[in-house]
Amino acid sequence: MCGIVGYVGQQDALEVVLAGLRRLEYRGYDSAGVAILSPDGHLAVERKAGKLANLEKELSEVSLPGTLGIGHTRWATHGPPTDRNAHPHVDCSGDVAVVHNGTIENFEVLVRGLEDRGHRRTSDTDTEAVAHLVEERYEALGGDLAATVRSICKDLEGSFVLVVAHKAEPDLVVAARRNLPLVIGLGDGENFLGSDVTAFIAHTREARAVDQDQVVELRRSGVTVTDLEGTVVEGDSYHVDWDTDAAEKDGHEFFMLKEIEEQPEAIRATLGGRMQEDGLLHLDELSMSDQDIRDIEQVVIIGCGSAYHSGLVGKYALERWSRLPVQVEMASEFRYRDPVIGRSTLVIAVSQSGETADTLEAVRHARHLRAKVLAVTNTVGSTISRESDAALYTRGGPEVAVASTKAVMTQMTAMYLVGLYLAQVRGTRDPDEVRAHLADLREIPDLVQEVIDRMGPVRALAKQLAGSERVLFLGRHVGYPMALEGALKLKELAYVSAEGFPAGEIKHGPIALIEDGTPVVIIAPRHALQAKLINNVQEVRARGARTIVIATDGDEAVTPYADTVIRIPDTKSLLTPLLTIVPLQVLSAAVAMARGLDVDQPRNLAKSVTVE
Ligand code: F6R
């Protein structure tokens, strides 16, 4: 949560910083602000509550020249989203400006000390304490801004990325990182900082990740990274292999609509290069020997929100193919129940951002208990990928809309790959069967495209459902996680009360929610449990539900009980989530649009949830 940007170079810093913030706005949009160091040594700060557009409007009326700047887009933690709580925060003299992502847990103690020593606070934030601490220590530490930040970091508890500019430093931005993401963009005569690479991808594709408790000195001529003791640490840079187009709306009204359309390509990218010439899988990324894989006794999958739903789909695939017992758990609950895991447990942490605090803490706990942790993530260099034993990248490309679409799709694809790979190595499926399943997977991108091309009627349906107060989603087997996902999407995008249930469970209580006309979406592609599912459709219909059924082409078994049928092409039953998820995504986005809502930035949310 919160996006941060830093720049020092030759270009107009305001333009660079604002462009970076536009790309990071998905991380939080309660308020935004910038600090620009002018050529005459004035540190100008502008900040405004509300979305970035509010700040941009204000900035259109002022001139902020300069080639060094920092910026912030906020998801509020300490203090309401007002102008005065917007970042950057400054010290008493206005010489220091600080932007911050994260929470400083001991800020109250720090603030009390600062107030006792005569500092005046002008915001309710934890961040402001850092600006005053810089003010106190900068001179004492010989005017060395990096040493000042290092000394402050030692006194901070919690999670943070801090970016600091000082009026007396026309060629230096200092940043520090603990637990939250910070990436350096390496340019020529200019350098960048961002919460992720999208912040600077328009300028450079060379990036370097910053590790735990490291401090960055960003100058025009280069970048120095040290640990908290001031020892220089070397690090490798990496090349980002997608360009700015991937992070643009490309004519779509919302990023989410574009990202839904990108799914066929995203699945191809996830599958790409992971199959050998003999048609079998090759997943070196797991960093596990065949013997390690044979020694696994159980699998635990952890994730939050939609990533948890991908994990649930993974459970069906892994258990079916590899015959290993699999548990799936919400990462936020995992470490508090004293899980019984150890050396023979494979923990799979699913996370698009690779920064979700609940998942990260669960990863740390699992490793502490000596389990082997595999990250399934979209973000190269993310904290979860670096703190896990191995990382399987989903290669979905940047996802800007807050609600996850192609990331979930590629996570599910990756889970199928892991399931098949475990089966291949453990010999629980013979090679021909593995090849056949992989062939089915390779057909999925075209089938997803077919579903996307047919979404006109779903958008029309959304207009009819726009006034509904409650929608229920039912599914069985792999349809159940999709029922959960459909309900989550509708809740978060359209603010409609929605719940997903295993269809068989509805008669044990939830059926009481059904009134005349209650829309019930039933995920009912052709598979072994369909006869039971049809009973459930009849049960809800008999109580007045309006039934919307997602069914396989040519399957007429469900149509007599459906008020509306949404068709998907046929595929193997285990793979159906890769198709049924598409109408659920389109429906939620279209209901939100019909209700006049911002599909990309739903209220109260942020894309990367870096607080527990
Ligand atoms: C829902 C959604 C969230 C995320 C969850 C985990 O549309 O996007 O539920 O799936 O916050 O995020 P990551 O995958 O980044 O760990």
Notable traits:
612 residues; alpha/beta; Rossmann fold; eight-stranded antiparallel beta sheet; six-stranded antiparallel beta sheet; binds fructose -6-phosphate
Give a description of the structure.
- This protein is an alpha/beta fold and 612 residues long.
- The protein is 35% helix and 22% strand.
- The chain folds into 3 domains: 3-246, Glutamine Phosphoribosylpyrophosphate, subunit 1, domain 1 (4-Layer Sandwich); 249-453, Glucose-6-phosphate isomerase like protein, domain 1 (Rossmann fold, 3-Layer(aba) Sandwich); 456-594, Rossmann fold, CATH 3.40.50.10490.
- Strands 3-2-4-1-10-9-11-14 form an 8-stranded antiparallel beta sheet, with helices on one face. Strands 5-6-7-8-12-13 form a 6-stranded antiparallel beta sheet.
- The longest helix is centred in the last third of the chain and has 23 residues, at 431-453.
- The termini are close together.
- The mean pLDDT is 94.
- Fructose -6-phosphate (F6R) binds at residues 304-307, 351-353, 356, 359, 403-404, 488, 492, 608-609.
Describe the secondary structure blueprint for this structure:
Elements: E1 3-8, H1 13-24, E2 31-37, E3 43-49, H2 52-59, E4 68-74, E5 89-90, E6 96-104, H3 107-116, H4 128-138, H5 145-155, E7 158-166, E8 173-178, E9 183-186, E10 191-194, E11 206-209, E12 214-218, E13 223-227, E14 238-239, H6 255-261, H7 263-271, H8 290-295, E15 298-303, H9 305-322, E16 326-330, H10 331-334, E17 345-351, H11 357-368, E18 372-377, H12 383-387, E19 390-393, H13 406-426, H14 431-453, H15 456-465, E20 470-475, H16 479-494, E21 497-502, E22 519-523, H17 530-542, E23 546-552, E24 564-568, H18 577-594
Parallel strand pairs: 15-16, 15-17, 17-18, 18-19, 20-21, 20-22, 22-23, 23-24
Antiparallel strand pairs: 1-4, 1-10, 2-3, 2-4, 5-6, 6-7, 7-8, 8-12, 9-10, 9-11, 11-14, 12-13
Helix pairs in contact: 4-5, 7-13, 7-14, 9-13, 9-16, 13-14, 14-18, 15-18, 16-18
